[in-house]
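Crash report, auto-generated. Payload:
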Amino acid sequence: MSHLLTGVPASPGIAIAKAYRLESEGSVPQRKAVDDIAAEKKRLKEAVEAAKADIDRIREETLERLGPPKAEIFEAHLFLLEDPDLIDAAMDQIESEGINAEYALHEVASGIMEALRSMDNEMLRERAADVKDITGRVITKLEGREHIALSELNSETILIAKDLTPSDTAQLNLEFVRGFVTEIGSRTSHSAIMARSLELAAVVGAGSDASGIRTGDMVILDATAGQVIVNPSDRQLEEYSVRKREYEEYQIRMRSYVERPSVTADGAQVELASNIGGIDDLEKVLANGADGIGLFRTEFLYMGRTTFPTEEEQYSVYKHVLEKMGGKRVVIRTLDIGGDKELSYLQLPKENNPFLGLRAIRLCLERKNLFRIQLRALLRASVHGKLAIMFPMIAVLSELQEAKRILAEERAKLEQEGIPVSHSLEVGIMIEIPAAALAADILAKEVDFFSIGTNDLIQYTMAADRMNESVSYLYQPHHPSILRLVQLVIQAANRNGKWAGMCGEMAGDSAAIPLLLGLGLHEFSMSASSVLPARELVSRLSKQEWSRLTEQALGMSSQQEVLDFVNQQLRSEA
Amino acid sequence: MVSQTFTVIHPQGFHVRPAKLFVEKANTFPCKVTLFKGEKKANGKSSLGLLTLGISRGDEIRLEADGDQEEQALHELGHMLTKIYEE
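Recovered output after restart:
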């Protein structure tokens, strides 16, 4: 009988293969009394030698296949198997307590692992995984079972584990491992992040039900939907083989868009950029061939710490991002904190309506020193690439003028100090307050660009918190009133020779892209993984055709009507 | 039995590689080698033992050698201890 498990879709993909269950630490060998102490010690010695022979073989294979750095871990394992605190100590336990080798070794190893796990140093804590690896190997030898290490798997496999440690993932043989399922974990756990960077299908946090999956069970892993089907029926196997093939074809098709320009079917050029939260996201941005960074949220530099980041710290991060992106534009948003995003060391008073309170640019203009440090770091970094500075949450012209005045002061100070600042640096604002959208024609004269932040713009326009279930239905990106506001902003930019982009979620939405294109949006900034599908979509659309269709959509009476219209048009084009 | 105290200066403390090098060196001496950090002690011929001391920068470590060639062991291992930390 097949059964279905659901978990967190940690890394997309579809895999069909036999399961291999990674032994969990929980399996404790039984404690048994032994009479022949000498024979038991000999048994341990032989098991250690056999384990060493295995490790040495894997070390040589790894050396050949992946090179010295990857083989190093096995050298360390061989060395640990000679450690007196491990093997000699287990020998002593066999002798003093008259117990079996499996249990003695397990006892000794547990003590060491516990000590290592209590360390402050991350690197030392991770060594517990090595101790677990090697003692597990010896214990399997003692129990007469064959030990299949992650690096030794030699047929297509879906790994099933309680969780995967860093040392587990370091050893994954990608030639054969097709995906993995863990019982615990979230989208941000180590294993999930690893899976995405290896582009390996993975479902994490599937719960204790996953513990029922045995080695050898047939498994369908639909990591895109977060589903795991154990021992599927023939019909399910057939269905998913087709889906898997389609998914792979889709992937290949998408990859072909990495180096293509972002151009519509009728030759209009747009910019498909990516949003990032920190330098860790850069690799994905580059791998997906984004045309630039449309939103760098600098909050991460300030959060999860107890003091403000220094100018130097910020400068080095901004410089790194600009250099990595080569000549592509990087829009860096100045500190957008307050509202739901708190900083304990800022010690802001509690507000009744934080979303309507002292946040983003309002806070920066109140705490000017904080703002000046960030602007200085940005200005200094500007010479390392194509920088655009963006002020969040501008509501009225005077806020923008004040922010620009401070920026000009900091520039003048730097120039006086003889520190170079780029002259092609762009300055823009995020449009996320209806007042700013409505006055876009006035604001446009003072900026180089607009970037529409739809998440807040929609909430403020509809006066509804999208996290509040009772009113979340009002979060309607395709509603004509939102489209009309967006139109105002784009038109104001166009008339003043400025560019308009969008960095809210709407920019990556396939049902919104045709409309935004029709409205004349220049830049679309989205999550890195949406860039290639967006480029593929844009390449099929005619900008001229959609500007006509969008005019029609603007006159409709509901979001649903707009959505039906867009989908119908897209279908008839396909 | 001889002993001496050393102060750790390496910013990363005593991790896997230095521990391995230290143990390999200690194994060339017949005498017993023990490291003390506060209340904790470890066998100087066990890298796991050394790791579980969790040695970090600024720690005072007492090195003790007991048996044949103890003077030489203390000298060379002590030198190596500070040497490793300088690498």
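Post-recovery validation: The radius of gyration of chain A is 29 Å.
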